[in-house]
Amino acid sequence: MKNGATEAQVRAVIDEIERMGYRGVPMPGAQRTAVCIIGNQQPVDGSTLLAMDGVKETIPVTKPYKLVSRETRPDSTVVIVGDVKIGAGEPVIMAGPCAVESEEQALTIARLVKGSGAKLYRGGAFKPRTSPYSFQGLGLDGLRILDRVRKETGLLIVTEATDSEHLKAVEEYADIVQIGARNMQNYSLLRLVGHISKPVLLKRGFAATVDELLMAAEYIVAEGNSRIILCERGIRTFSDNTRNTLDLGAIPAIKQLSHLPIIVDPSHAAGRRDLVIPLSRGAIAAGADGLIVEVHHDPAHALSDGAQSLYPAQFDELMKDIARLRQYLARS
Ligand code: PEP
Ligand code: MN
Fold first, then answer.
1. Full-model pTM
2. Residue 37 DSSP label
3. For burial by CB atoms within 10 Å, which of 75, 107, 170, 296 has the most?
4. CB-defined site of ligand 1, < 6 Å
5. What percent of the chain lies above the pLDDT cut of 70?
6. What pLDDT band is residue 270 in, cutting at 50, 70 and 90?
7. Which helix (H) or strand (E) holds 34?
8. Could you tell me the residue ranges of all domains in the chain?
9. Residues 6+ apart with CB under 8 A from 138
10. What is the Å distance from ligand 2's center to 223 Cα?
11. Helix, strand and coil in the chain, % to nearest 5
């Protein structure tokens, strides 16, 4: 639409698109609104639309993921949650244990990461574990502990929903609902989080291409939830030196292809504590909008992912590193 097109003109265009048998989705930008046509199998003849009041141009979108594509929306999306803005320039750091183990454990770590400057607290209440015999998370009790963490520290909460059965509860307690790597292509779950009231942290599957990640995000936006944060967390390659291989190139590539913010999880990428800080630095330098990092005060006794969890003092160093790196990047 033209700069200054009225709401009525946008509405009329959507009505016309619906009359043509498709869906029209308005996407307001900083300067002007785009109306995205979805549901067409073939190119659409835009001549009727072009003749309508307020219409500036019609742009054929070449990507199969239309709503999340930068072709459709040149302005970057900023996801706002509480007083935190993700994708607005300042990297947002989320930190905490892999899993909530007890109230004491969760609060101890929360106070420490908050002291170092984390804005969000991570911690799984429902854990997707490779082995059925591993600790599966505290479930609803874990969510209640996360609620205590928020109340005591003011940290916002990001936690995973592993299935539709517990999605409502997770939605209620979380500030951001995480969809894990294993569920990136669980299309029925993606559709459901398209209807929740909270932003979604969508992690890249460890065998998923960038296009597949963006198509997964498209599922969520197509259902109506456009508050999505993508997350690169390492993919499986022949390299067996690390748990996964962090795909740093995906960050600038996704920035070109999509308007959605993207953060990096260096912990699940590395699988080992000694690589988490270098990978974090690389991620910030490559333009990531934030990090989600595992931290534990007693990693030797952690119930999951202790080997990749930073000690609180290391996390504090990392936060100082990021501040220095940001200054350097701003200068250069
Ligand atoms: C997690 O962040 O807790 C997690 C399980 O990560 P991923 O889904 O990336 O394996
Ligand atoms: Mn973990």
1. 0.95
2. E
3. 296
4. 98, 124, 128, 160, 180-182, 203, 233, 265, 268
5. 100
6. very high
7. strand 33-38
8. 7-50, 79-331
9. 99, 100, 101, 125, 145
10. 29
11. 40, 20, 45
DSSP class of 231: E
At residue 289 the predicted structure's pLDDT band, cuts being 50, 70 and 90, is very high
CA of 281 to the centre of ligand 1 (A): 20
Shortest-distance atom of ligand 1 to CA 203? 9
Mutate which of 183, 185, 233, 294 for ligand 1 pocket (most atoms within 8 A of beta carbon):
233
Is residue 201's pLDDT more than 90? yes
The dihedral over CA atoms of 57, 62, 64, 67, expressed in degrees to the nearest 10, equals: -30
**Two structure tokens written together for 24:** 């029209």
Torsion of CA 60, 61, 62, 64, to 10 degrees: -140
CA of residue 98 to ligand 1 center, whole Å? 8
Q: If you count them, how many residues does the chain have?
A: 332
| 232 within 8 A of 265, measured Cβ to Cβ | yes
**The pair of three-digit structure tokens given for residue 127, joined into one six-digit string:** 């854990």
For residue 236, which ligand has an atom nearest its CA? Answer: 1
The backbone torsions φ and ψ at residue 329, rounded to the nearest 5 degrees and listed phi first, read -65, -35
DSSP for 148-167 reads HHHHHH--EEEEE--SGGGH
The rounded distance, in Å, linking the Cα atoms of 109 and 297 is 6
- Neighbouring CB atoms inside 10 A of 45's CB total 10
| Cα 85 to the center of its chain, rounded Å | 12
Q: How far is the CA of 308 from the centre of ligand 2 (A)?
A: 8
Query: Hey, what CATH class is 79-331 in?
Result: alpha beta
